[in-house]
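User: For a reading group we're discussing how well predicted structures match intuition. Take Leucine-rich repeat protein. Before you show the prediction, I'll give you the sequence so everyone sees exactly what went in.
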Amino acid sequence: MSALSFSHLSSCYLCLIFVLALFHLCSSNQRSDDLLCIKEERRALLEFKHHLIDEGDRLASWVGEKTDCCKWAGIVCDNTTGHVHQIHLPGLNGHCRDFHDTDKELKEASKQQLKGELSPSLLDLKQLKHLDLSCNDFGWIQVPEFIGSLENLRYLNLSSSNLSGIIPPQLGNISQLHTLCLGSFQDWRGESTSVMNMEWLSNLRVLRHLDMSNVDLSQAMDWLQVINALPSLAELHFCYSRLLDIHLHVPSLNTTSLLLLDLSRNQFTNSLVPQWIFSITSLVSLDLSMCEFNAFIPSRSYHIFRNLTSLKRLHLSDNNFMNSSLILKELSSGIGSNLISLDISNCDISSTTLDSLHNVTSLLSLDLSGNQLTDILPKSLGNLCNLRDIDLSSNSFQNISLTSLLESFLECKSPRLESLSISSSGLSGHLPNQLGQLMHMKHLDIGYNQISGTIPDSIRLLSFLRTLNLPENQISGPIPLWIGRFSLLEVLDLSNNQLNGSLSGSFGRLSLLKELRLSYNQFNGSLPESIGRLSLFKKLHVSCNQFDGRLPNSLGQLSKLEELDFSSNFLTGDVTETHFVKLVRLKVLDGGGNNLILRPQLANWIPPFHLDSLNLNSWVLGSQFPLWIQLQKDLVYLNISNTSISSPMPESLWRSFPNLKYLDISENHMQGTLTLSGIPTTLELLDLSFNRLSGELRYVSNGSYPLFLDLSNNLFVGSLLHLLCSDGVKVTNILNLGHNSLSGVIPECWEKWQRLSILNLENNNFSGGFPRTLGHARNIVSLSMRENKLVGKLPSSLMNLTSLEILQLGGNELEGSIPYWLGAQLSSLRLLNLRYNNFVGTIPHELCYLKHIHILDLSNNKLFGDIPRCFNNFSVFSGDEFFRGYLFYVNIGRIINKEVISSDSLVMKGHEYIYSTNLIFVRLLDLSSNNLVGHIPSELTTLIKLKSLNLSRNQFTGMIPEKIGDMKELESLDLSMNKLSGELPMSLSSLNSLSSFNVSYNNLTGRIPSSTQLQSLNESSFVGNKLCGDPLTKHCSRVEAPDTDHEEDNDGSHGVDWGLIISVVSGFIVGFWVTVAPIIVSRSWRVAYFRFLNDLRYMFYDVIHKMFSR
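Assistant: Thanks. Here is the predicted 3D structure of Leucine-rich repeat protein, as structure tokens, for the group to look at:
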């Protein structure tokens, strides 16, 4: 064959190959355009979907028999064969650790999680290599055994999908698996998967990544042996896996591929770090944090880190090493030149031991937070010139200035620090100018200290600053004008300081600012309009300042704003649609505590936002319940108290807010009846107090009661039977129905209210006996039933309320003796008010066990006997115990703390007052208007912290205790209308706080002691006695009251007439012996004397006989 023909034949052959390839390519593309998916595998996927619950419609594309399953969401097919190779269906976009601030966000996130069951139809996907179902919610079903038959799997991720039970050993059949993720985050319910032994893992010879965090491995005693047999393993995550045995006897491991080892959050039975860990020479990252280790098992040469030459990241936080200095020294000498990240937070490390770190010059990140650093850091740390991030927060640098603390880091010629945190460390002094030398600083956090002074100008040199956190200090002065130069600043937190002045327009130049927190300062002036130029703004908090003027219209331009809090200022004027026009992302609006008027121009205004939290307290919203608020379906928190609403509650109120947790409409003028039926099951706080609601209180049909229910100060009438005794156990903690017109007998069904901590039924018309079943509500801390018409004795079941701190039963008709168990069993009582009842008998000595008592009022009863001398056991009164007030809080989810303030009606300074917020400052003992007798015990004068003592209208006798002047904090002392005698003690002049004093209508005599307080009182405080001197018009004579000048003071008599006493005694002695001596000496005188007595006796009998015979 000629060369030409051969060449021609070759050309034809090549053309034929090209045509065939083109035909195959075209047919392939045509098939791809039609259906790449294999019919059987499409059917398997549809069956898999059928068993799932897809609330977020993530599988909306998984429909039809004629659609290409290779184009479905989460499905990846082989382009040539059409087989399904990969399923990517992680929930929450794979971000399992994301936290959600509101219930709405939580519910939205939950919708994006697949639920239901895992169908074995996946077995029809013969070529499946990748299966990711992480971050879903499968309702704690067991890991299906059939997954072990997916023999071609290379990647399996079921982590954080709410699975439980024993992990099937069949997973060991997937011999080609290189990634296995079965871990999760710690669940609050304590449910997790578990493993009995790990032998099945031995078959996974190519496994490189194993995550069994939060899998219960407490029974898998062979875990280390199996891990040592996996030749390809590079990453091992056993965080919080309940491992117990750390295998101290194992000297070393054979693995040479392991790069990452995470054994954190386990509680090993042995507190020693084993030697085998330091034989893994390939390790790059080691995490042993929160394992309760206290020492290492050293090798023979004690160089425990010498083999870990590749280690770059070491986490040892939250352990309690006994010799941290030695450990840091070994660390520095062993791997000091390679380590880039070291976390030794919460390890009880002291400042002196840090000198050992001077050789770890490669460090980029160092976490020393939560230790016992108290001294200046060693200057040797100046060698760490590569350091980018250091955390020194939560230490105890008391009396150390920030300047001294930073000296070691400023030793570097060019400090490269980018992040510095020294929050909550007790730092004092000023912000030093040296901060300006940290030119690369991006994140500076010095919050929660005692830093004072102004913001130094040197900080403006930190041109790369992105975060500046200085909250909870004592920084004063204005914010410098140069703040606008921080063009990269994203977060500025200066809250809770003493900053003042106005906000300049320079804030408008912070174009990247996302968060501004200036709450709890003393800023004044108006909010600048330039704020509206901050287009990236997400959070603006300027509450609790002194801003005045109008709310800037430019706020309505912040289209990315999510949180707006300008509450508790002095803002005035109208608020219109303009202020909210572009706030489409707004979730939190808190403007309460201002004098603003909402005046939308459109009667049916519909805001652009959908809020989670709304507080317009003290605004003027108009007489009608705002319609636009009812359209905020996502509300969780709503406070429109004191907003001038006078219309009835809308019938659709409960349906309008299905997610509501907190509702406060108190201090309005709302009228009409209240329907509790249908309230959202989510509602935890309902405050409708101080309105004009009326009618009877009916039961809640769905059995749902809020944790906090306040219906006080309304016009409700009738019985409580339906409200209290409906079916079901009640979860309410605080129930306030005081100051209404409720009547009838208090129902006996308190066994349903065992979670109750505060119960207020005061100022109603309840009658009958005290409810006996109330003793079942054992968690009650505060109980008030004062000002009703209750009768009878206190039931002994009340002694079960051992947590009781406040008991107010005054103004009833209770009778019998005061029970001894009030003191013996209820020893936590701090306020006991039984005034205006019919209690009789003596004051039980057991009341002396109430050593925490702040207020004890037993006045206006029928008590008799004396005052127990053991009243000096009251440790708050005597100053042996620091008193605390009567403030209670109820947690409403993650939203708010509701303050509950106790109140009481007390007699102070001669007048009856209602104490509420100032009740915490009252320390009172009132036993007035009883029939108490005897002397006033001198022991009462040891109650040096008592502010009010009232013993008036009793039958006390004797003298006022001389040491009453020791009670130097007394502001009110009333001893009037008793039978006290003697002179007023001179020590009364020492009572410099005394503003109310009454000793009228006693038998007191003498001069009134001199003091500014006593001489400034009205004469009525002393009438009904034989007193003299200022402020009385009666002057003291020398006889009535010896002068107290210097001459008479020197005679030593102290006011006693010794001459009179001597005369009386001498006369008695002489008269006695003149009469008795003759009888003793002369016998005839003795006979005549006794004969005279005998005749006198008969004469007496004769007179008596004649009187009765008539």
